[in-house]
Amino acid sequence: MNKAVFLQTYGCQMNERDSEEVLGMLSAQGYEIAEQPEQADVVLLNTCSVREHAEERAYGKMGELSVLKRERPELVLGIIGCMAKLHQEAIFQRLPAVDLVAGPAELYDLPYLLAEIQERRQRNTIYDIRNTRVAAVGRKFRPLDAKPNGEFRKNKVSAFVTIMEGCDKACAYCIVPMTRGQEISRPAEEILEEIRILVESGYRDIALLGQNVNSYGKRFPDGSGYRGPLGRLRLLEEDPDSLLDFPQLLRRIDASIRCAGRRRPAVFGTPVGHPLRGYPASVAV
Predict the structure, then answer these.
(1) How many other C-beta atoms lie within 10 A of the C-beta of residue 244?
(2) CA distance 133 to 251
């Protein structure tokens, strides 16, 4: 009988896409996708650290799942994603029932990490969770050649495609550089191949994902970024200061609070408008 996995996602669209890739990989390994944690052999929480509230929600949910594990000691509980990267030791201390902690860079290793947990359990004749836990949060970003072994997408019309990860901005208020690392871009050929497969499968709405998508390609040897013929794309998590380097994507800017730069609501208009000076008239807000 195949094992089943349940995965709950907190946070941004990048986490949603990461969860799809995780479910795709585990499905390719023979796992079934459970609708409820009570139906699963492995329960994973893909977590967010941007706000403390998101972390507390994940801690609370895993606390509930710990009760389930007392009834089923063989259950594997795991925390993955940004919170795992940032709070590895704290998670094990606060949640003794957790078996697995894996940061964003190690998501592609999850099938092997879960197998390692099972092997450690089999070697321990006297079961002790402290000897069977696995933590993997070493690298800052996932390797360039990492590819999922399977595919699982919840939405059959629109799709997320990750084109880069990380951020070099180092804003004082933002945790992203610590959890996702420096900016790193996927090869253009790999992205276009993924988009081609999606289009052939019937997808019509594709959103490009990244912590700072319009910095795509800046670390490539020729610094070329994207200069292709596509006429319409949708960006998530863009940085206004970089958009002038990405003319093909100047269609709409969703100005966010981080662009305001001031605390007083009375003067919000000036800093919000400032990043748009010099942009073509076709840009909409």
Answers:
(1) 13
(2) 48
Amino acid at 137: V
Half-sphere exposure of 105 (CA within 13 A, CB side): 21
* DSSP string over 261-283: --S-GGGTHHHHHGGGTT--TT-
Q: What is the pLDDT along the chain (285 residues), one digit of tens a residue?
A: 789 999 999 999 999 999 999 999 999 899 999 999 999 999 999 999 988 888 999 999 999 999 999 999 999 999 999 999 999 889 999 999 999 999 988 888 899 999 999 888 888 655 555 566 777 765 545 555 555 555 678 888 888 899 988 888 888 888 888 888 888 888 888 888 888 888 888 888 888 899 888 788 877 776 555 554 444 455 555 555 554 454 444 344 444 434 444 455 555 444 544 555 555 554 444
- What is the location of CATH 3.40.50.12160 in the chain? 4-136
End-to-end CA distance of the chain: 53
Report d(CA 170, CA 279) in Å as an integer: 25
Strand partners, 4: 32
Task: Give ranges for CATH 3.30.750.210 in the chain.
Answer: 158-276
Fold of 4-136: Rossmann fold (3.40.50)
CATH architecture of 158-276: 2-Layer Sandwich (3.30)
CB 140 within 8 A of CB 176: no
Chain centroid to CA 257 = 22
Alpha carbon distance 71, 182 (integer Å):
42
Question: Residues 189, 61: contact at Cβ < 8 Å?
Answer: no
